[in-house]
Design brief:
The complex is a heterodimer of chains A (about 240) and B (about 325). Chain A is mostly helical. Chain A has 15 helices and no strands. In chain A, helix 8 crosses helix 15. Chain A starts with a helix and ends with a helix. Chain B is α/β, with parallel strands linked by helices and about 325 residues long. Chain B is built from 11 helices and 14 strands. In chain B, the strands form 3 sheets. Chain B has a 6-stranded mixed sheet, with helices on both faces. A 4-stranded antiparallel sheet of chain B has the order 2-1-4-5. Classes of the chains: A mainly alpha (about 240), B alpha/beta (about 325). The interface between A and B is medium-sized, with 24 and 34 residues.
Chain lengths: ~240, ~325
């Protein structure tokens, strides 16, 4: 735990040592608002809820989270600091978890900074704050899923660009797994059980379920196990790279 | 304290390291010599557990770096090639992070960092971010990081690369001052460094250990070892060579023309035996005016070249 904490602190500090953190925060907040008010027609809907705000989060995360995740391991490999990092008395598991938690804390911070929209909707009407809270929790869990995928992919390459593009593509597949874009690819030949299984991988399905205000154990289990699996793969990739 | 047994590393079909074995005891400073691409850094990466060997084992203070990596890594300090460090951190924050990971808290951490800073003379630049530092300072930050926890084993990949002569001198003094109670391995291709600080040297080329011994023992392999040089008039040099050639121990001669009508004649020994006194007597008896006589030392650079180029030809 101790080592995870120090790795976490160093990583999180690293975001704020450069303009990366501030650029990300500003762009995240601006885009979240733009999506809410222009694409989501926040005012025109005339409803005191944050559906217009949360429904765009998967699409926002789709390209912003790979941008956060891409540097997690690629940058260390490119600059050679990974050799220093992995010869410190830490386990690979601690390294993976510490880095992941730091990136997630940063994303959650960005998410938390959207609080003015929550104040706004409370001023304008009388929303169900339970649903809003559940949606925030769901959004945070979904971001963890994107991040874990991005982190594992970042471990495979020293090029941040490659990490970004591949992560965004994989995240896209996970996002839309429940839609015909992906399902039609399987439905022609695969057994129905597999098609259902693929559909159940969809971030959209699980996120929408949570943002209706019900934090179902199945959705929680889905995101938690997805993150755990990705981080496990991440650690395995780091170990595998040692073999050269 | 460091035991390397039959280390091999293949990258695809390329044999980067081929059956390297050696051990380093407390108090030894091992110089790891070799041309670029000889496998020095790869060996060090395997010794520190960053790379997994294709075959063989590396033990640090009894801990196998593959089986018990954390215990092994606790016992060692490592300066990787190029002294990588997080560029956006300040030197102070970076050393604090390393000390925290090394298990130091509170006052003990501050003391450790302060001691490492003093040893590597970093006091002036602690609040600068590492990417603004000069190459020499970066290297010293890397050194400070490696010796911060006063490890039993120090593995330093080219510790003086990029330093100016004064800094090199300081780093060598630092290594010498720590040598008594540690096992230290440094890789280098600067041969004077081996003479200056190493108690033992290993020459490696194409992934194989070609020589292992004290710097003096390696120097003895040089044809210059026990050679005797005479400085005399260029005109008299033929006569001198004829006189010295009568001695049975002399295996060959070399001449170098000098300034002011002087020249140098070097007599090489046939077998590695001293012959200064005898050749001196012959020269005096011959009546030729000699300006200077000296016994040559073995030349490490020549030994290095001979050994490593022979392996390349093979």
């Amino acid at each position: 735990m101790r080592n995870i904490w120090f790795i976490f602190k160093r990583e999180l500090g690293g975001y704020f040592a450069t303009p990366v953190a501030y650029v990300f925060l500003v762009i995240f907040l601006v885009l979240a608002s733009v999506f809410t008010f222009y694409l989501g027609n926040f005012f025109e809907r005339g409803q005191a809820d944050l559906q217009a705000f949360f429904s765009f989060h998967p699409w926002l995360y789709l390209f912003l989270i790979p941008a956060i995740a891409m540097r997690l391991w690629s940058e260390e490999r490119r600059s050679g600091t990974i050799e220093l990092f992995l010869t410190l008395p830490i386990t690979v598991g601690q390294a993976v978890v510490g880095k992941f938690l730091a990136a997630w804390a940063f994303v959650v911070l960005a998410l938390a900074l959207t609080f003015p929209i929550w104040i706004t909707v409370n001023r304008l009407g009388d929303p169900d704050n339970g649903i809003v809270l559940a949606s925030y929790v769901g959004s945070a869990m979904m971001s963890a899923g994107y991040l874990a995928i991005g982190s594992a992919i970042s471990a495979t390459t020293k090029s941040q660009v490659v990490a970004f593009v591949v992560s965004a593509a994989v995240c896209f597949v996970f996002t839309v797994a429940g839609t015909p874009i992906v399902l039609s690819f399987f439905s022609g030949w695969a057994p129905g059980a597999l098609v259902d299984a693929v559909a159940s991988f969809s971030f959209l399905t699980h996120f929408n379920a949570i943002s209706r205000g019900v934090i179902d154990l199945r959705d929680v289990v889905y995101f938690v196990s997805l993150v755990a699996a990705c981080l496990f793969v991440n650690a395995a990739i780091v170990e595998l790279k040692k073999a050269g | 304290m460091i035991e390397i047994q039959g280390l091999k590393k293949y990258f695809g079909h390329i044999r980067a390291v081929d059956d390297v074995s050696f051990s380093v005891a407390r108090g030894e400073v091992l110089g790891f010599l070799g041309p670029n691409g000889a496998g020095k850094s790869t060996t060090m990466k395997m010794a520190t557990g960053f790379l997994a060997p294709t075959a063989g084992t590396a033990r640090i203070c009894g801990f196998d770096v593959q089986a018990e990596p954390v215990s092994a890594k606790r016992k060692m300090g490592y300066l990787p090639e190029g002294a990588p460090a997080y560029p956006d951190m300040t030197a102070a924050a970076f050393l604090d992070f390393i000390a925290a990971i090394r298990g130091f808290d509170g006052i003990a951490r501050a003391k450790r960092v302060a001691a490492a800073v003093e040893r590597t003379q970093l006091a002036g630049i602690l609040d600068q971010s590492i990417d603004t530092l000069s190459k020499g300072f970066k290297r010293r930050v890397g050194l400070a990081q490696a010796l911060l926890h006063d490890p039993d084993v120090l593995i330093l990949d080219e510790p003086t690369d990029g330093l100016d002569p004064n800094q090199k001198h300081e780093v060598r003094n630092l290594i010498r001052s720590m040598a008594a109670d540690k096992a230290i391995v440094i890789s280098t291709h600067i041969l004077e460094e081996v003479d200056a600080i190493c108690t033992r040297a290993i020459i490696i080329a194409k992934g194989r250990v070609l020589a292992d011994g004290t710097p003096e023992a390696l120097e003895k392999r040089s044809r210059w070892h026990y050679a005797v040089s005479f400085v005399t008039d260029a005109a008299a040099i033929d006569a001198l060579q004829a006189a010295l050639g009568a001695h049975s121990g002399v295996g060959g001669f070399e001449r170098i023309a000098g300034e002011d009508g002087l020249a140098m004649l070097t007599a090489f020994p046939r077998a590695g035996a001293p012959m200064l006194a005898e050749l001196g007597a012959i020269a005096r008896a011959s009546g030729i005016r000699i300006d200077e006589i000296r016994e040559e030392r073995g030349r490490l650079d020549e030994v290095f070249r001979t050994i490593t180029t022979a392996s390349q030809a093979a």
